[in-house]
Design brief:
The complex is a heterodimer of chains A (540) and B (399). Chain A is mainly α and 540 residues long. Helix content of chain A is 73%, strand content 0%. Chain A has a single domain (23-283, 295-317, 329-533), classed as Orthogonal Bundle (MetI-like fold). Chain A has helices at residues 13-20, 27-41, 44-52, 59-97, 103-111, 118-129, 134-139, 150-174, 179-186, 191-220, 223-227, 233-242, 246-271, 295-323, 336-366, 370-381, 387-400, 411-436, 440-447, 452-481, 484-489, 497-506, 510-533. Chain A is globular and about 65 Å long. The two termini of chain A are 33 Å apart. In chain B, α1 (2-21) crosses α2 (23-35), α6 (127-137) packs parallel to α7 and α9 (231-244) crosses α10 (246-258). Classes of the chains: A mainly alpha (540), B alpha/beta (399).
Chain lengths: 540, 399
């Protein structure tokens, strides 16, 4: 990525030189990264082909018209990203570094808003707080401040995307060398000083990775701005598809990719130099921040945001469920196969994303090469393409190659779509972990006779495990709820929970939508619990 | 009809076999049946074991097809052409359905159960998305039949040259106005724009018969509701733009806002609010009122229709054979089955739509199809282009 690596920890400088020395990349991870980057960029082929078919005379009026949409999208992205950082970082700190009670429960609750499909979340907020909504009736008032527009869109967007920051920062805090904080404290630094000078630099890459995910998700989401009636760029893409103009939709999607590149550049610039690893990687003490009299307020604060994000849609879903399932629509009933299918594809996507992301994250964290940076950034491009456009692009690819590789309308293409959409979630999380591993440690293992693979397995892997698990968890949770690409690419007859939710919701059979939606939340919540209880990486 | 009896028994036996092997399937199959009878709150899940219900003498909801059962009293199926008199279906068919599974799932299942070596692979999606999908798939599209929720998407697929024209004998099931002039698609059921009103507050004569008069009707002040995000509503405004022009439509929208029209998220909610007395009247597709009535007997709600204007647009759902169909005859014959007496009766009783085959009557509480007066010079395929309508709705502050 061409940024200068800065060494702020004196003890690390020797090792740093050892790792920063090479612009010569190791062959195997480089080839693997190149293949992954090429694969996830493939869908752009279709977008470019479509865009090239737009008559050039239409281009100028088009771009002048869309400046307002672009400005709107950027404003929404900025507001959501900042708000997510302000929520996600303190939540992560409270649930990792303090003696907050019920940490595990709070961790699940804080991550869970991520599993709520944005259209359900937004719809629930409109039902609850919109005109003639639940709140208005309950309060018996004539009108409430409007939920529609920029404020509402930013609120809903933040509530359902801040977990990106939370999960990545949490992983960073978990694997942070806490002895550094002890050292700072010994040197008579205050808690705040220690936080600012030790913890912040340590979690900065993770916070940046999480914030980038928030920003690009906000950019690519169609459902929330549409329901909250805010004119974002995705709306134009959607309108183009709805007037059957796939050429224009392709061009507008590329415009979104352009904005993505701008945000990626901005993020690189904001992030500045990459830190930072301590001399004694993995050092841990049991020292946590004692909350004392702040325990109760901290618990309330930690509970408040997830509660708002979860209670509103849960209440609406339970309301639908209680209202019952009416007349027609019996074919909507849920079977266990829906759950298995959902968990199966989401699990496969998480596994594939972790494997494919590993070489990319490794190279980009370890080597100061431009190429490694390009591979890393390339994985983010597909993430910002709206799901509908990405779905059609893969339909095109799938049918084009069907002679050689019959993957169209199979589960494999679906998993590939999830990989393209969500790979950066795994890469971002893993990259942040790699950055915290002191290269001196695997070097030492090599000195002691391990092969490079062996050193990676026995030294690096345990240290980055939280980041790998965190990244895979993100992919899992978002795949569970992904709708537009699933709708487009699921083989006929392959039913998942989210397709059930959509089938019922779309036809106004809310009673039937409630059950699969609640099961979706339940299964995702359980998966979170499993993931968290598997975290056996508190290396002493 | 003896045929119906036989079929019912056959599918019931099959249902019993399925239910005994998989209780959950029985549970699934029974919801619709029990749901169609009583209060909506008593009809949710939890009907116990599937076999238990089935032995009560009722098959799954697929078994209801052709039975004449309906929430509004049973009726006999007369006229039309039964599936039994149609060419048999065999092989595998890929159906792209823009109509939702809750509405057509049981019908497709029923047709599958009728023929032992016939199977349908159904891909559900929004009609517009499926048209984009077929076009992107190009000549490798696996789609055999496209089943659309409106005429617009069918017209779009036909315009893109991606349909194969249907045989005359299939087109002839329905009157001219419910099919493509060049024979590329055929309407299978219809839905009318309507004005549901609360019968405690209004009588039918209180409702204007011209849509353009609504804003000037004092009695409606603060009493009306609509769902401007809903696609059928937007198609209705598109029709108004075509028929009355941009300025008149803008004035109408402004006038309705001055009338204090209240906004809902969908037209089922509008219809429910009318039945609750929260609204005196609203704009909605006709079948939502019947859905409300099916859920609660004696709800004080009835339907009024405007005349020969955008407020009385009659749109059709329909089927087309995709040009990539692997077997044109099989695909066309599947579409033919959607025009069978059983399927048409299903649309009438289960989705509360208008059958497009004249021999099959709509539900008795609906006016006959020739009592409606939809605008004559309107091309239905124009109604799916909603972009400018949405811009207008935003412009005047409705959206």
């Amino acid at each position: 990525m061409g940024t200068e690596r800065r060494t702020s920890t004196a003890t690390a400088s020797d090792a740093d030189e050892a790792s920063g020395r090479g612009d010569s990349l190791p062959l195997a991870p480089t080839l693997a990264s190149a293949a992954v980057a090429a694969a996830v960029l493939l869908p752009l082929v279709w977008l470019v082909r479509r865009a090239l078919d737009v008559p050039t005379t239409e281009l100028l009026p088009l771009f002048s018209r869309s400046t307002e949409f672009v400005a709107n999208s950027l404003a929404l992205v900025a507001a959501t990203t900042v708000a997510s950082l302000l929520i996600g970082v303190p939540l992560a700190y409270l649930t990792v570094r303090t003696d907050l009670p019920f940490k595990r429960g709070f961790t699940v609750a804080a991550s869970l808003p991520l599993v709520i499909p944005s259209y359900i979340g937004a719809f629930a907020f409109v039902s609850a707080l919109g005109p003639r909504g639940i709140a208005q009736r309950a309060l018996g008032v004539e009108s409430l401040p409007s939920i529609y527009g920029f404020g509402g869109a930013a609120l809903v967007m933040t509530l359902y995307t801040y977990p990106y920051v939370y999960i990545t920062v949490r992983a960073a805090l978990k694997s942070m060398d806490t002895t550094l904080i002890d050292a700072a404290r010994t040197l008579k630094q205050s808690r705040w000083e220690a936080f600012k000078r030790v913890t912040v630099p340590q979690i900065r890459p993770a916070a940046a990775a999480g914030a980038l995910l928030v920003a690009l998700y906000t950019l690519s989401d169609f459902g929330t701005p549409a329901i909250m009636r805010f004119d974002a760029m995705t709306r134009e893409v959607y309108l183009a598809f709805n007037s059957f103009d796939r050429d224009l939709a392709g061009l507008l999607s590329l415009q979104l990719v352009g904005v993505t590149l701008f945000i990626l550049a901005l993020e690189s610039w904001v992030r500045g130099g990459d830190p930072l690893h301590s001399g004694r990687q993995g050092g841990r003490t049991d020292d946590v921040v004692r909350l004392g009299k702040w325990k109760l307020p901290a618990m309330l604060a930690t509970a408040a945001v997830p509660a708002l994000a979860l209670v509103v849609p849960l209440a609406v879903l339970l309301g639908w469920w209680a209202a019952g399932t009416t007349d027609t629509g019996a074919s909507l009933a849920l079977t266990p196969s829906h759950v298995f299918n959902s968990v199966g594809v989401a699990g496969a996507a998480a596994l594939v994303a972790a494997l494919a992301g590993l070489p990319v994250a490794y190279l980009s964290a370890r080597y100061r090469s431009k190429l490694a940076g390009v591979f890393d950034r390339a994985t983010y491009v597909g993430y910002a393409v709206p799901g509908v456009a990405l779905g059609l692009a893969l339909v095109y690819l799938g049918t084009e190659v069907s002679g050689v590789l019959p993957i169209y309308q199979t589960v494999w293409l679906l998993v590939f779509a999830y990989l393209v959409r969500f790979l950066p979630q795994a890469v971002g999380s893993m990259r942040a972990s790699f950055l915290r591993v002191n290269p001196a440690l695997p070097e030492a293992a090599r000195t002691l006779g391990r092969t490079s693979v062996g050193a990676f397995r026995s030294v690096t892997m345990p240290l980055i495990a939280p980041g790998v698990v965190g990244g895979a968890a993100l992919v899992f949770l978002t795949t569970m709820k992904e709708l537009p690409a699933t709708l487009m690419l699921a083989p006929p007859g392959f039913e998942t929970l989210v397709l059930r939710v959509w089938a019922a919701y779309d036809q106004g059979y809310f009673g039937y939508a409630a059950v699969p939606a609640l099961v979706l939340l339940g299964v995702s919540g359980l998966s979170m619990l499993v993931i968290i209880s598997q975290e056996g990486y508190d290396v002493k | 009809m003896t045929n119906d009896g036989e079929q019912r028994c056959r599918s019931r036996r099959r249902f019993l076999a399925a239910a005994s092997t998989a209780g959950i399937a029985g549970l699934a199959g029974c919801n619709g049946l029990f749901g169609s009878g009583g209060e909506s709150t008593t009809t949710s899940t939890g009907n116990g074991s599937g076999t238990g219900n089935a032995t009560n003498g009722t098959a799954g909801s697929a078994g209801q097809i052709g039975s004449g059962r309906s929430p509004f009293g049973d009726r006999n199926l007369e006229g039309g052409v039964s599936m039994a008199e149609m060419p048999e279906l065999s092989g595998e068919l890929t159906l792209y359905s823009g109509r939702g599974e809750p509405l057509v799932g049981t019908l497709i299942e029923y047709i599958e159960e009728l023929y032992p070596d016939f199977a349908v692979r159904t891909k559900y999606g929004s009609a517009i998305e499926l048209v984009n999908l077929i076009q992107t798939e190009g000549q490798s599209s696996p789609a055999d039949v496209f089943f659309s929720v409106n005429a617009g998407a069918l017209g779009q697929l036909a315009n893109a040259g991606r349909t194969t024209s249907l045989p005359e004998e299939i087109l002839d099931f329905v009157p001219q106005e419910f099919r493509d002039p060049s024979g590329n698609w055929v309407g299978t059921s219809g839905r009318a724009r309507s004005v549901p009103y609360n019968t405690n507050q209004f009588s039918e004569s209180d409702i204007p018969t011209k849509i353009m008069e609504f804003p000037n009707t004092e009695a409606l002040q603060g009493q009306m509701g609509w769902a401007p995000t809903y696609s059928s509503f937007q198609a209705f405004i598109t029709a108004m733009r075509i028929l009355e022009g941009e300025d008149a439509t803008r004035q109408w929208l402004n006038g309705m806002q001055e009338l204090g029209v209240q906004q809902y998220n969908d037209e089922f909610l509008v219809s429910q609010a009318v039945a609750d007395g929260e609204l005196a009247a609203g704009f909605a597709n006709h079948y939502y009122t019947l859905r409300v009535q099916a859920g609660r007997a004696n709800a004080p709600i009835a339907l009024a229709f405007t005349e020969n204007d955008a407020g009385s647009v009659f749109n059709v759902a329909g089927g087309a054979v995709v040009d990539t169909a692997s077997d044109d005859t099989l695909a066309a014959n599947f579409v033919r089955h959607l025009l069978s007496a059983e399927a048409q009766d299903y649309f009438a009783r289960e989705t509360y739509e208008y059958p497009t085959v004249p021999e099959i009557e709509p539900l008795g509480r609906l006016p006959a199809i020739d009592q409606l007066s939809p605008p004559e010079e309107l091309d239905l395929t124009q109604l799916s282009e909603l972009e400018e309508t949405v811009s207008l709705l935003r412009d005047v502050g409705v959206l």
